[in-house]
Amino acid sequence: MKTRVSGKVFVRFEQWRSLLVQSLLLGALTALIGRAFWLQAIHSTFLQQKGEERYSRILPEPASRGIIRDRNGQPLAISIPSESVWANREDLEMTVSQRDQLAALLKEDPRVMARRLRGDTGIVYLKRQLTPEIAQQIMNLKISGIFVQHGFHRAYPKSSEMAHLVGFTNADDHGQEGVELAYESLLQGVYGARRVIRDRAGHVIEDVENIRAPRQGQDMALSVDARIQHLAARELHAAIATSHAKAGAVVVLDSQTGEILALVNSPDYDPNQRVNLSGDELRNRAITDTYEPGSTMKPFTIAAALEAGRIRPDTVIPTPGGVLAIGNHLIHDDHVAASYTVSEVIEHSSNVGAARIALELPARTMWDMFTDVGFGQKPKSGFPGEAGGRLRPYQNWKPIEQATMAFGNGMTVSLLQIARAYTVFPNRGLLRPLMLVKGTPPPGHQVMTDKTAREVTAMLETVVSPEGTAPQAAVPGYRVAGKTGTAHKVLRGHYVNKYVASFIGFAPVSAPRVVVAVMIDEPAGSRYYGGQVAAPVFSALTGEIMQLLEVPPDAPNTVMGSDVSAEHHT
Amino acid sequence: MRRELFLFLTIMMLSLWVIQERQQARRLYIDLQQARDEQVQLQTESDQLQIDKGTLSASGRIEDRAVHVMGMLVPQAGQKRLLILGQNPGGAR
């Protein structure tokens, strides 16, 4: 429909067409507004969620395990970041070139690795404890199905010397043995998590929310002295090699505070290389194993009798023929004498003398003393797997049992337990709890009088004299006191000709600093007495500890012997 | 009219300021993240150095090197000499 006006052509639309266009435009606008309202007001949560999924991430906040140190700050266990590489075989896609590069980075044979990766399903760990740099290089290969997991690797700088004490963690960083297990809750860090926003480059640009704060594992300082630990390990290993023994252990305690200064077992293991570990190597013999203590129990029998007022150090105990018959049983002495004073019973380690003294006591009195110093109970040092030893209720004791318990037969103890019990003598009758962690010593309790402790100490000092059973335990320059022990081992309920040789003592007597307990399990050959096998370890170790701790000699005249020469300088 | 214009300009300026501050905050946050990463790296390095120090200064290693590299000997009981300072051979000075 065209009209011509003055030579110009106008196109005249029908009215309805105009309305149609306007309606369409209005409708489209309404639809847009409606859609905008729908998206912004009604469906906004869904959209926001979808949007956040594209730029927000939940990041783990790493928390490392606490450091374990010795009393002087030397690190004994430290965690360092490490990465684990694993493969999801379902998603795994890689070229031969990628496989070879991956194997080279993992330092593995490509064919061996390929064999491990065969199979349609399942996750397989390729390697743990990789450095972050190597892990990054692996991720740069961009192999589908290969993933890196962040974690920590535990390192033990003192290796085998501290193995039984510190223990170790597993691949998941959980304590498995020793202090690592005992203080798991303290040492273990707890990972945190936070939601963040990342930009296109992958940078975190904003914290959205802190989902869970990380908790770093707490550092801890042990009471142990790494230097004494080394000396103890060295002397123990040397003694075991010399005596061809099966095993052994040494415990060193601070005689005043009850702190564990060293605890060594042999055989041991390297916690950094735990491949093919045997149960023998893992055993913390000083804590978990019990044995018949033999004559090292005699001081406690004597102490009980002294406390009860039944004897004095100079009381004469008849030991005719070195034999005592109780029912069908005979008790023998190695050195025969008609009688001994109480002090000589200790000096010459007379079984008959100790048995006679015990039989003068009510069973309850003896049991009370043994119990008061901690026998028959776990020493509560904080170590996992502590043994409490065996001390039967006194109501069931028969005379022969009471007599043999006087010299340490018919009952069992752990080396740690008896080392702690010996602290009562240098500590004037006070027994303190054991301390594995550095700190203020908790209060102890008096288990015997100062007088009794001093009298027994004087007797124990005679043991290391030339006339005693352990002159080899003497330490040039220092007064030491202690007691030997040699006990038959029990196998399948019967005594056999295998021995546990021990020596437990303390030094210096004038102002005691340490209690040293040595146990040698099954020394081979003709030398199996505590005075022959364990006493020399005590002597060498105690002498070195005295020098290390700069303890002034309290018996300087004894250095003039043949073993050590002394020079006096002004 | 002037009042509306003033408010409009103020709003525009404040909007630009907010955008700039937001950008600045993000930049600083990235710096903070980098500093945190650096802290972790330094901590790792420190831990590694502590391990190295602990390993290298272990008494056993020093003793082993002294014996096997430097040819020294662990003195036995008969080879030791105790020096007591501040005393005459006869007793007190």
Summarize the structure.
The complex is a heterodimer of chains A (570) and B (93). Chain A is of the alpha+beta class.
Write the layout of secondary structure elements.
The complex is a heterodimer of chains A (570) and B (93).
Chain A: E1 2-5, E2 8-11, H1 15-42, H2 44-55, E3 56-61, E4 68-69, E5 75-88, H3 96-106, H4 110-117, E6 123-130, H5 132-140, E7 146-155, H6 163-166, H7 178-182, H8 184-187, E8 192-198, E9 204-212, E10 220-221, H9 226-243, E11 247-254, E12 260-266, H10 279-282, H11 285-288, H12 298-307, E13 316-318, E14 323-326, E15 329-332, E16 339-341, H13 342-347, H14 351-359, H15 363-372, H16 399-405, H17 415-422, E17 430-431, E18 445-446, H18 450-463, E19 481-491, E20 494-507, E21 514-521, H19 530-533, H20 535-548, E22 564-569
Parallel strand pairs in A: 4-10
Antiparallel strand pairs in A: 1-2, 3-8, 4-5, 5-6, 5-7, 8-9, 11-12, 11-21, 13-16, 14-15, 17-18, 19-20, 20-21
Chain B: H1 2-56, H2 59-68, E1 80-85
List keywords for this structure.
heterodimer; A: 570 residues; alpha+beta; Penicillin-binding protein 2a (Domain 2); Beta-lactamase; 5-stranded mixed β-sheet; 5-stranded antiparallel β-sheet; 20 helices; 22 strands; disordered C terminus; B: 93 residues; mainly alpha; 70% helix
Query: How many strands, which pairing sense, and closed or not: the largest β-sheet of chain A?
Result: 5 strands, mixed
Task: Give the amount of beta strand of chain B, in percent.
Answer: 5-15%
Q: Please give the oligomerization state of what you see.
A: heterodimer
| Low-pLDDT sequence parts of chain A | 560-570
CATH topology value of the largest domain in chain A: Beta-lactamase
The CATH class assignment of the largest domain in chain A is Alpha Beta
Structural class by helix and strand composition of chain B: mainly alpha
